[in-house]
TrEMBL record:
Domain Peptidase M20 dimerisation: 227-320
InterPro entries with a match to the protein in the record: Amidohydrolase, Bact_exopeptidase_dim_dom, Peptidase_M20, Peptidase_M20/M20A_hydrolases, Peptidase_M20_dimer
Coiled-coil positions: none
Gene3D superfamilies with a match to the protein in the record: 3.30.70.360, Zn peptidases
Family (UniProt): Belongs to the peptidase M20A family.
GO molecular function: dipeptidase activity
Name of the molecule in the record: Amidohydrolase
Keyword Hydrolase: yes
Organism: Punctularia strigosozonata (strain HHB-11173)
Keywords assigned: Hydrolase
Any single Pfam family the record assigns to this protein: Peptidase_M20
Amino acid sequence: MITCTCVKGIEETYIDVMTSPMRHACVFTRINFSNSAGAGVRAMAIYRIDAVEDDHLAYVSPYLDSLSPALRSLNRAIHDNPELGYSEYLAHENLVAFFAHYDGWKVSPRAYGIDTAFIAEYDTGRPGPIVSFNAEYDSLPNIGHACGHNLIATASVGAALAAASCASEYSLPGKIVLFGTPAEEEGGGKIRLLDAGAYKGRKVDVSLIVHPGNVRDAALVSTAALSRFKVEYFGKEAHAAAAPWEGINALDGLITAYTALSVLRQQTMPGDIIQGHITHGGAVPNIIHEYAAGVFVVRAKRQARLQELMKKVTACFEAGALSSGARLEITPILTYLDHVPNKALGRSYRRHFNRLLSSASSPEIMTDHKHSTELPEVDRPIEPPEQDIIDGFSNASTDQGDISYAMPSLHPGFQIRCEVGPHTPLFAAAAGTDDAHARAIRAAKALAATALDVLSKNGYLREIKEEWERDVHHQG
Ligand SMILES: [Zn+2]
Ligand SMILES: [Zn+2]
């Protein structure tokens, strides 16, 4: 038996608060309960609900508020011990240990022979959609968690646990899978898991992840396709003063190519990016340079455009070889596909996120949860799709792009308070604050509610997959 006191001071008694009609009109601040285990008073906030279909958000929101302190410790442990890609041993250990506290989760550490990858699975026991979350936890050299991947891990773990708990509570069908995906910055951990069959083997239907930034919140984040490769020129030594004509100058080959690339940049399209640095520029000035090398990165909005651009870029390197006589070798290091956001999934996330915004800023919400009060009073809602897709465009790249070509994917961006963007020391500091944590928890709520829509709404998964077919296979 549960007695609820709403903000207007009216008391009503229900057998089950989750099915009470009153919660559609009021916000509870105090709940007196008595059952076989005893009696007591529990203070909590249940957000205003206008429609039955939002039951799941009403469940995951207080659930994640109650989980937030434990997630804060996990977040701090990752943030304060930054580890580079494929060396995230502590993060792996902490994340795997975290799932041990929750019933029904099967956890596979060191998945597929990757030391710092893991998989956590929750099966409702009823056949249905299989929804996955990706958790990143690698940092950057010298500047720590400057990409805020500690917040990504926090949000994905929180969302997965909330979705599983709600699925159990409401007897929903399907499975929740959390992939611990290392080395996003430099090593493409998700691609290794994709190639190993981790997603296909589990028949995963959709993939969800969020990423912090310092720009406004967006559901439909797209990222650039990327190719990183090493360029080497092999020439021949000679005395640079006495007999330079006997040598072949490898550095000249590389400099000619660099200059040709600089010229090419004038003719590229918006979204085309060419970056590079010289790692080897010869030994000393008085020897003709036998070896020169550099690492280059080329990006474009879509994979098809990247391939076009790469033909022009390769021609510049060939020009360097032709003019200098040095032999050219190009060795691929890493390629990430562009991220194609799924608009159908984006609709759910946008709706849930904007509802949470209005709840948090509403004077009617008398929440007593300290983490919720740390959210800013006013945040900008995510714009409708036409503007959202513009707000969500980024020239950065991620291995979630490859995931988006393998299955429908959503990679919303959530704003944290920081004057500057990711990959800076200031952003690393901002990613460690309580405010950033609260924002990660809010993003996790919207993400969990999106996952629950996939599990519970008839025809929604079909709609998501049709959208994906159109975007990925018919646009190129
Ligand atoms: Zn990054
Ligand atoms: Zn990142």
